[in-house]
Amino acid sequence: MIPRDHRSRPIGRRDFLQLAAAGLAASAVPKALGSFGQAEPNRVDLPPLHDTKVEAKERTPGPSLAPSERVGFAVVGLGHLALGQVLPAFGNSKYARPVALVSGHRSKALKVAAQYGIGEKAIYDYSTFERMVDNPEIKVVYVILPNSMHAEYTIRAARIGKHVLCEKPMAVSVGEAERMIEACGAARVKLMLGYRSQYEPMDRAIVRMVGEGKLGRPLHFVSSNSQDEGDPGQWRLNRAMAGGGPLVDVGIYCINAARFLTGEEPTDVVAQTQQLPNDPRFREVESAVEFLLRFPSGFSAACNASYDCHRSQFFRLECSDGWAEMNPAFAYHGLSLRLGRPVDGVDTVTEVDVEAKDQFALELDHMSSCVLKDRLPHTGGAEGLQDMKIIAATYESARSGQRVPLAAPAPTRGPEPDLEG
Ligand code: NAD
User: Fold this and answer.
1) Ligand 1 in contact with 259 (CB < 6 A)?
2) Which atom of ligand 1 is nearest to the CA of 248?
3) How far apart are CA 421 and CA 365, in angstroms?
4) Are residue 294 and residue 309 in the same domain, yes or no?
5) Which pLDDT band holds residue 285 (cuts at 50, 70, 90)?
6) Vertex 261, ends 255 and 227: CA angle to 5°?
7) Centre of ligand 1 from the C-alpha of residue 150, in Å
8) Taking all residues of the chain, what is their mean pLDDT, rounded to a whole number?
């Protein structure tokens, strides 16, 4: 909503120059930029890959790798996300390729394998999972299963020496998340959580602006991630399989965004949940949740998530000198970023076109890059664990009606991703 006394206009050259100063020059292409729109996407100058003098673990990927050089992924679970987003994203990735599938449905797996050039021998099921140890092409196992299966398959993958990329939420309990970290640590394999927003260019642009103080001090974060979950028989509405309702499934995006956009960690949470009566979908999980997180600097995040609402996915980060808003914020496509700031003394709303990228391809490439360069993932196990702790505290607050404190974690993120496509 734009206040009436605000001007709303597409971004101009002056804005572009300001954004350039904020480090956005490479990724933000202003809508009405005309001949100024020559900006290249962000690129990091990387040494060539094919330098035989360099140890494999120190090699740095170049702009794109030949198939034989790419990091091989086994995709575990062939549900909506795997088939609709992740497998197609390999086509947009630069360093990753699918080399194996794990599925309980062999006929489906055969069809998918043929589509992606994966041989029949590289199709596994949940009982033959450990045989992947004999397939050296598989470097990373991507767990895209119902939430209650994340811990088991992450730990099983670690035990056969494979790196793990695991979907959000990390698990269905804090204890499971801790065991996943322990298992990956003991096996000396990498663990990354699929927090795609943290690799998405608009979100990254906001992180940079906040880090450079371009919007002033972060004060308030308002966010919703809601959708209408129709099928009462699905696992997302089963507490044991999902670990909770909209909070764990979609509310986690609001929690994670409040944290990564500001780099702060909450000190406490107060929450309430709703459970629509007489609706067969909500016998086990909440239909909606509202929660308020407080942070040490005085920053706060007011969020809600619902399974009984028309799709609504936005956030607005309000700071002392301006605001950044994404609406939609958490969708796969069609994201939109607006900034509100004074320009020449007049409150001005600008729309910023940041070149769209396939978020899943960016995520796959980050994991591949970490494997190739032997680096810690930006969104590793500690990042997922912290969200699990916040989720647990949020449910505890909703149950008790009390504000629930949260301990300050050690830093949860690995080095900034340097591959933005
Ligand atoms: P889905 O139900 O469409 O797929 C789940 C897959 O797990 C199916 O292939 C199913 O056959 C398999 N499976 C194996 N054992 C099962 C069992 N006992 N019960 C049910 N399914 C079983 O789910 P999805 O939407 O693809 O979600 C999978 C994971 O991905 C979840 O953890 C979810 O939170 C996450 N997800 C992430 C995003 C994102 O944007 N990052 C989006 C959607 C889902």
Assistant:
1) no
2) 34
3) 8
4) yes
5) very high
6) 40
7) 10
8) 87
HSE toward the beta carbon, residue 338, CA cutoff 13 A: 17
Task: Tell me, yes or no, whether 189 and 82 share the same domain.
Answer: yes
Enumerate residues 6+ apart whose C-beta is below 8 A from 170.
150, 176, 177, 180, 193, 381, 384, 385, 387, 388
Q: Is the pTM of this model over 0.85?
A: yes
Q: Which domain holds residue 347?
A: 200-355+379-405
Give the helix ranges, DSSP H, for 187-299.
201-211, 239-242, 246, 252-262
Q: Which residues are known to be catalytic?
A: 168, 253
CATH number at residue 292: 3.30.360.10
Return the residue whose CA atom lies nearest to atom 21 of ligand 1: 146
Indicate whether 212 and 320 sit together in one domain.
yes
Please give the average per-residue pLDDT across 274-283, as a whole number. Answer: 93
> What CATH number has the domain bearing residue 72?
3.40.50.720
From CA 34, how far away is CA 272, in angstroms rounded? Answer: 49
**pLDDT band at residue 353 using 50, 70 and 90 as cut-offs:** confident
Residue 55, in any domain of the structure? no
DSSP line for 236-255: GG-HHHHSSSHIIIIIHHHH
Given this model, what pLDDT does residue 1 score? 30
